[in-house]
């Protein structure tokens, strides 16, 4: 392992500090490292591997496509892409789709669409209101919308015209809205910012304000979308419907695909405006189609709602015993445990005990398991977590 770490340091740019674990295979909700050690995975590639690992339906769909054609170009018709778009549109409030490769690209696409809307339909309006503590990605446009200076500071100045408002504070947003505002972007459940769900009333008011002020309402559901919260899109929980939505992560079940969906009114791109060479190629679309098939046709959404509630209850139960646990938040399989000790200590102790987790900021432990996770895996994860919390509590008392 040491030599692999050294090799990584020699040849890879230092954008990550990887854990010294070389994962080589996976099955269901479990992954195995190169020493044969098994881990229960409650991080799923950071909310990506929706169907876990080695899922038969997913494998079959992708394998079939792999042996036919992987990629050609959007210069040609693409049946798999059309089929995927139809499935997304038929199960949402949107009318059109555009496919790209990642979350940050989906946000870039939404940003460009909003700017085009401002130019074409709102007297050249070009400003965007984004939220404090948001996370929208690492490319320059989406980084400009990310309301956390720690990600931005080495790259300033970023895009002009981005104004930040306090999340869940309608008055603040209203005050910042002006005739030059072409869009408001927010995550219905902030992910990297610490698993903070929006208030329903707040979202309703934001929707009304955007309609009255003729600004595009963009929801970034890159993390909270695609069934993660037990509905296909997180905004369904709130009954609030955006004009544009950004998707990625779980959409491809591990294959790199992102998308934006928009209503008819925002269907404004023309040839030459926007494109992606790999965007929605047949292979990634076949994977995304298999994910949607499980979520919608095989009722996985219902199971996620049940299992997610069970998981939240269990987390709430055990957290009663630990004074350093402040709150359990989230919906479905997007849950966070806020603590007033370093969340990274809990995550690394759980990893040593065979449970993979990830933080969401310094004080939140995040639970984003594969969407196929059942009661047995939840009980096992809770058991490991509980024993780790117990040890940390004892240590803190010493
Ligand atoms: C809400 C949200 N938007 C955008 C992104 C960026 O996605 P990607 O890493 O695929 O570019 C992320 C990634 O964590 C995210 O959580």
Short description:
The protein is of the alpha/beta class and 398 residues long.
Map the helices and strands.
Blueprint (H helix, E strand, L loop, with lengths): L1 H10 L11 E5 L2 E4 L4 E4 L2 H4 L8 H11 L12 H12 L5 E5 L2 H19 L5 E5 L8 H5 L4 H4 L9 E4 L4 H7 L4 E6 L2 E2 L5 E2 L2 H14 L2 E5 L14 H4 L5 E4 L10 E5 L19 H16 L2 H20 L5 E7 L2 E6 L3 H10 L2 E2 L1 E2 L4 E4 L7 H23 L1
Parallel strand pairs: 3-15, 5-6, 5-7, 7-10, 10-11
Antiparallel strand pairs: 1-2, 2-3, 4-12, 8-9, 11-12, 13-14, 14-17, 16-17
Helix pairs in contact: 3-11, 4-11, 12-14
What attributes characterize this protein structure?
398 residues; alpha/beta; Aspartate Aminotransferase, domain 2; 7-stranded mixed β-sheet; 4-stranded mixed β-sheet; 17 strands; binds pyridoxal-5'-phosphate
């Amino acid at each position: 392992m040491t030599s692999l770490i050294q090799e990584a340091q020699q040849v890879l740019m230092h954008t990550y500090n990887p854990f010294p674990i070389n994962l080589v295979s996976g099955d269901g909700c479990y992954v195995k490292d190169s020493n044969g050690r098994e881990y229960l995975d409650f991080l799923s590639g950071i909310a990506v591997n929706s169907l876990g690992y080695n899922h038969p339906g997913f494998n079959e769909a992708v394998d079939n496509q792999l042996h036919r054609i992987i990629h050609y170009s959007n210069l040609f018709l693409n049946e798999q892409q059309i089929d995927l778009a139809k499935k997304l549109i038929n199960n949402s409030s949107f009318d059109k789709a555009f496919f790209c490769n990642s979350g940050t690209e989906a946000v870039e696409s939404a940003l460009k669409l909003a700017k085009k809307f401002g130019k074409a339909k709102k007297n050249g309006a070009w400003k965007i209101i984004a939220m404090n503590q948001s996370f929208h990605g690492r490319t320059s446009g989406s980084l400009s919308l990310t309301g956390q200076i720690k990600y931005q500071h080495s790259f300033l100045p970023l895009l002009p015209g981005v104004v930040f408002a306090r999340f869940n504070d309608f008055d603040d947003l209203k005050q910042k809205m002006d005739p030059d505002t072409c869009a408001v972007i927010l995550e219905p459940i902030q992910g990297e910012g610490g698993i903070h769900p929006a208030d329903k009333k707040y979202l309703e008011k934001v929707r009304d304000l955007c309609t009255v002020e003729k600004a595009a309402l963009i929801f970034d559901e890159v993390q909270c979308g695609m069934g993660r919260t037990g509905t296909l899109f997180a905004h369904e929980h709130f009954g609030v419907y955006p004009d544009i939505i950004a998707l990625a992560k779980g959409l491809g079940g591990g294959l790199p695909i992102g998308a934006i969906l928009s209503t008819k009114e925002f269907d404004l791109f023309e040839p030459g405006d926007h494109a992606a060479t790999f965007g929605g190629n047949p292979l990634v679309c076949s994977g995304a189609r298999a994910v949607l098939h499980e979520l919608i046709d095989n009722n996985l959404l219902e199971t996620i709602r049940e299992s997610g509630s069970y998981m939240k209850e269990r987390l709430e139960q055990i957290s009663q015993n630990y004074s350093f646990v402040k709150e359990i938040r989230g919906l479905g399989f997007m849950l966070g445990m806020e603590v007033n000790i370093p969340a990274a200590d809990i995550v690394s102790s759980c990893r040593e005990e065979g449970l993979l987790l990830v933080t969401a900021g310094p004080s939140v432990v995040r639970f984003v398991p594969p969407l196929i996770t059942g009661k047995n895996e939840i009980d096992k994860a809770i058991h490991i977590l509980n024993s780790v919390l117990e040890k940390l509590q004892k240590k803190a008392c010493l």
